[in-house]
Specification:
Elements: H1 10-24, E1 35-41, H2 47-59, E2 63-66, E3 69-72, H3 77-84, E4 91-97, H4 102-112, H5 115-129, H6 133-138, H7 142-156
Antiparallel strand pairs: 1-3, 1-4, 2-3
Length: 169
């Protein structure tokens, strides 16, 4: 009779819910043209906290436009505040703004994210799965379908953490 029980904390459940949302919920509708900007200050003595902040911002879809200046086309600033509420050493300034126009928007996006690398990685994913689409449409036997689905989700799940879900504009 030895038994080990694992239970997720509320924080772990929240993290899993956020991860599921980040992977499967993509932005819809037209873009309002506003960038959501987070400017942060973290004391030099808190380098680990600064790195944690950067990871958190990337997790939420922000990209670094300049040191300590991160942008997103989506308003996820409430999530930023929520994740950092307990860290009193972090100073946040959150702004909304518009650029000078579409060319400036594209330039900012290309500086904040490595879109060329992301595009190449999507192309590799599509090259891997495109030949299998006819089989998927015909239907696969149960076990094979489960394995194929799990592999596809596994291969795709890394993209939303790198893909800022930029609007078509």
């Amino acid at each position: 009779g030895r038994e080990t029980v694992y239970v997720l904390t509320d924080t772990a459940w929240r993290l899993l819910d956020e991860g599921r949302s980040r992977i499967f919920d993509r932005a819809t509708g037209p873009w309002d043209g506003q960038w959501h900007t987070v400017i942060y200050q973290v004391p030099e003595t808190e380098r680990a906290l600064r790195e944690q902040l950067r990871k958190q911002l990337a997790w939420l879809g922000f990209g670094p436009l300049a040191p300590s200046v991160w942008i997103s086309a989506h308003d996820r600033t409430a999530e930023v505040r929520s994740h950092l509420a307990e860290h009193t050493a972090v100073r946040l300034d959150i702004l909304r703004s518009r650029s000078e126009g579409p060319a400036a928007d594209r330039d900012m996006a290309s500086r904040a994210w490595d879109l060329a690398e992301l595009d190449r990685d999507y192309a590799v994913l599509l090259d891997e799965y495109r030949p299998r689409i006819p089989d998927f449409r015909r239907g696969l036997p149960g076990r094979e379908a489960l394995v194929a689905r799990m592999q596809l989700v596994h291969d795709y799940r890394r993209f939303p953490f790198r893909d800022p879900d930029l609007p078509p504009e």
